[in-house]
């Protein structure tokens, strides 16, 4: 999902601070389009936030030809060992197939200025 230069294209608007940390400050769009369906990132975020090992989450789409692949950026709760597989399985159990996290799960330490923290 990274381009040749190592960038992850999510369609979000972000800034970088003097320490090189990225802060997602807004969504370029609030809908992920996959397979002709429109997916609400907030709906997937709500499912993931119900997990005890998750402190914060941002779901966005990674653009690929003809689609956006849903991806979750997750901050683990303190001392949590929640895994990518557990998060993916929770979404698969709770949502219809086209809302699966086809772009994967990435664990991060900061999600700035997000509604679902």
Automatic annotation (TrEMBL):
<keyword id="KW-0503">Monooxygenase</keyword>
<dbReference type="InterPro" id="IPR042099">
    <property type="entry name" value="ANL_N_sf"/>
</dbReference>
<protein>
    <submittedName>
        <fullName>Luciferin 4-monooxygenase</fullName>
    </submittedName>
</protein>
<dbReference type="InterPro" id="IPR045851">
    <property type="entry name" value="AMP-bd_C_sf"/>
</dbReference>
<dbReference type="GO" id="GO:0046949">
    <property type="term" value="P:fatty-acyl-CoA biosynthetic process"/>
</dbReference>
<dbReference type="GO" id="GO:0004467">
    <property type="term" value="F:long-chain fatty acid-CoA ligase activity"/>
</dbReference>
<feature type="domain" description="AMP-binding enzyme C-terminal">
    <location>
        <begin position="43"/>
        <end position="109"/>
    </location>
</feature>
<dbReference type="Pfam" id="PF13193">
    <property type="entry name" value="AMP-binding_C"/>
</dbReference>
<keyword id="KW-0560">Oxidoreductase</keyword>
<dbReference type="InterPro" id="IPR025110">
    <property type="entry name" value="AMP-bd_C"/>
</dbReference>
<dbReference type="GO" id="GO:0004497">
    <property type="term" value="F:monooxygenase activity"/>
</dbReference>
């Amino acid at each position: 999902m990274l381009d040749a230069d190592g960038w992850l294209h999510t369609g979000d608007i972000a800034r970088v601070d003097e320490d090189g940390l990225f802060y997602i400050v807004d969504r370029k769009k609030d809908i992920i389009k996959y397979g002709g369906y429109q997916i609400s990132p907030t709906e997937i975020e709500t499912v993931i936030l119900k997990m005890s090992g998750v402190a914060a989450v941002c779901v966005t789409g990674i653009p690929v030809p003809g689609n956006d692949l849903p991806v979750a950026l997750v901050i683990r709760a303190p001392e949590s060992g929640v895994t990518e597989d557990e998060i993916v399985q929770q979404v698969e159990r709770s949502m219809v197939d086209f809302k699966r996290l086809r772009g994967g799960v990435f664990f991060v330490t900061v999600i700035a200025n997000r509604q679902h923290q």
